[in-house]
Write a structure and sequence with these properties.
By secondary structure, the protein is of the alpha+beta class. Helix content is about 60%, strand content about 15%.
Length: about 400
């Protein structure tokens, strides 16, 4: 045990592990390809789906994952699908394979690259769909009930974005939040997981549960929460990071937080190398890295000063990613974050969690109205730096 503790305190171990896994991830993505063949396959399992007007976008599986699209004939068929179909249900489909064409115009969204980055090599158009068998997995039955419950809420779009990681907020406001430089608040990240875990730790403390047991219980809840959000990249990174920190604390390994982060990223990439291509994963990992580096400095600052410092660090670190995605940056975004970060973290997100138990839709609807109104107002005072699109590679 003593030798293990000494080994775990070696900084070079984590650097070596991280670099090795990073190289291995790129090798696995580039050279190790799955055999793709869906010949004569008619039965698939629904992994996830999103509805937009009368179109249905699905991710299906049958040993491999495929992307599928189906167009509802009318509103009634759409309502029937929402009513009777759930995640992990088995369906039978008639379809045609749609060739994934490479997009050589770098200024347009590259759907081919998007699917390849998720290790999806087949895209199909469904002509007919029918239910074969409802899922019998108890965890998915619970998950589907939670999804349906949130769907029934008037504020479901924001609840899905903040709680489930499914951003279905209206395109107009998505664009406004993006231009304000606060769209990171509308995707579940380390900040949301920190709030989530803090609330449960305080709750269990009030219930006078021992500290070690508090961390174990929160870790179990966090694993279920990651499952609820389909183990998306940024949520998985934040969740695994908390769990490893909890193990580090319970067993007194005294591993530095920066090394825990390197271990977290290494473990996740070892399981799924394609996360290295996920912008959310890259963004959250980089932000976490620099916040840990400057954590000692932040402890000596007041809340407002630390908030300003975090906003500036986040802006600087995310600068190349923002340019790569949007070709422009709002130089006042760190100022806007000074308002939106405390509003979201202290008021809005906790109330959305409470709304899962208590019916406070009316209050959240009012807050959404205020947030959207202010956002439309302040966007007119923004100052943008625009970059040429030749920076795309």
């Amino acid at each position: 045990m003593l030798k293990l503790r000494k080994l775990l305190l070696c900084n070079y171990l984590y650097i070596f592990l991280f670099l090795s896994i990073l190289i291995l991830s790129f090798i696995r993505i580039k050279y190790i390809k799955e055999k793709v063949d869906i010949t004569n396959k008619k039965i698939f399992v629904i992994e996830e789906y999103h509805i937009n007007d009368l179109s249905l976008n699905l991710t299906l599986s049958n040993k491999i994952k495929i992307k599928a699209k189906y167009y509802f004939k009318d509103e009634q068929e759409k309502r029937n699908f929402v009513k009777y179909y759930d995640l992990k249900d088995k369906i039978k489909i008639d379809y045609e394979v749609v060739e994934l064409k490479k997009n050589n115009n770098k200024e347009l969204f590259n759907y081919y690259k998007y699917l390849k980055n998720k290790n999806i090599n087949i895209n199909i158009l469904i002509h007919k769909i029918s239910l074969v068998q409802k899922t019998k997995n108890p965890l998915y039955i619970i998950k589907n009930k939670i999804y349906r419950y949130i769907d029934s809420k008037k504020t479901s779009k924001y609840m899905k974005a903040f709680i489930l990681g499914n951003n279905e907020i209206d395109k107009e406001y998505k664009k406004i939040y993006q231009k304000l430089g606060i769209n990171h608040l509308f995707a579940i990240s380390g900040m949301h997981i920190s709030i989530f875990t803090m609330l449960f730790l305080k709750l269990f403390k009030l219930l006078k549960i021992d500290e070690d047991k508090r961390y174990i219980l929160v870790s179990i809840i966090l694993v279920f929460y990651m499952f609820l959000t389909s183990f998306s990249a940024s949520i998985t990174r934040a969740g695994v990071f908390f769990i490893l920190l909890a193990i580090n604390k319970i067993y007194y390994f005294y591993i530095k937080p920066i090394n825990v982060l390197l271990l977290t990223v290494s473990l996740i990439l070892f399981i799924n190398p394609y996360f290295i291509l996920d912008i959310g994963f890259i963004y959250s990992s980089l932000i976490s890295f620099f916040l840990i580096v400057y954590s000692n400095y932040l402890e000596d600052l007041s809340y407002f000063k630390s908030l300003l410092f975090v906003s500036i660090i986040s802006l600087i670190v995310s600068f190349p990613i923002t340019i790569y995605l949007n070709f422009e940056i709002n130089i006042l975004s760190f100022i806007f974050n000074l308002f939106y970060v405390p509003f979201v973290s202290i008021i809005f997100f906790p109330l959305l969690l409470i709304n899962l138990i208590l019916p406070i839709d009316f209050l959240i609807s009012f807050l959404i109205f205020i947030m959207e109104y202010i956002s439309k107002l302040v966007i007119n005072f923004s100052i943008f730096l625009t970059f040429k699109k030749i920076f795309i590679f």
